[in-house]
């Protein structure tokens, strides 16, 4: 049975001068969760926020909070985000394997791998599950779905449809075949992050995704509630085969 579409709002594009009001806007819109983009200036080119933001918004919202860790050595920081109040931890596959030539050093982006150390990943899966929280494995556009062995052990997969590091990027269609392949076998949540808006969301849903992460589309909308309502209203369309 297909899961209902959920909307995850990234506060990356929120007005941080009025963060409490922006969080309430997310709640009032009917969004299902908050997405906190954590960037360290090493795994990605820029620095954003850390556990203090999770701590700040935890007391003022009942929405689940997802900490998307776009950071080096996420295993050294998972406990901090769990203790801060995150309900979902998203880690990157690129932090669990040997990176390709050209993205191994500082300043070389985007990070990409062809396989991961399954046992290293399992340690973090266990850590998060032992805390009663959920864990999602994330892949950059250039990284294949290289962790079939642990799919039964994780709660979701986040497909990046942009190279992480900046908001307001254009959707990369290379994400669609990954979503399609994953939807055939994976029973957990399939989330998509990057360039999801009124023009791209339908193709993402058609491919098999059931969680849509949005930032600029939500905060740039004249009526954020209508934006969320539209995304949640989408149903996969069956296309007729050509003769």
Provide a quick synopsis of the model.
The protein has helices spanning 19-29, 51-57, 78-84, 118-130, 175-183, 201-207, 216-219, 224-233, and strands at 6-10, 33-39, 65-70, 88-92, 134-139, 156-160, 189-193, 211-214.
Give a written overview of the molecule.
- The two termini are 29 Å apart.
- The chain is α/β, with parallel strands linked by helices.
- It has one domain (6-233): Aldolase class I (TIM Barrel).
- Helix 1 (19-29) packs parallel to helix 8 (224-233) and helix 5 runs parallel beside helix 6.
- Helix content is 28%, strand content 18%.
- The chain has helices at residues 19-29, 51-57, 78-84, 118-130, 175-183, 201-207, 216-219, 224-233, and strands at 6-10, 33-39, 65-70, 88-92, 134-139, 156-160, 189-193, 211-214.
- It is built from eight helices and eight strands.
- It has an eight-stranded parallel beta barrel, surrounded by six helices.
Broad shape: globular
Distance from N terminus to C terminus (CA atoms, Å) equals 29 Å
N-to-C SSE string, H for helix and E for strand = EHEHEHEHEEHEHEHH
Over the alpha carbons, how many angstroms does the gyration radius reach? Answer: 17 Å
CATH class descriptor: Alpha Beta
Number of strands: 8
So, CATH architecture?
A: Alpha-Beta Barrel
How many domains would you count in the coordinates? Answer: 1
Question: What is the topology, as strand order, of the major beta sheet?
Answer: 1-2-3-4-5-6-7-8
The total count of helices amounts to: 8
Oligomer: single chain
Q: What fraction, in percent, of the residue positions are helical? A: 25-40%
Q: What class, by secondary structure content?
A: alpha/beta
Mean pLDDT: 95
Beta-strand portion reads 15-25%
Can you identify the CATH superfamily? Aldolase class I
Taking the sheet with the most strands, its summary is: 8 strands, parallel, barrel
**CATH-derived topology:** TIM Barrel
Low-confidence stretches: none
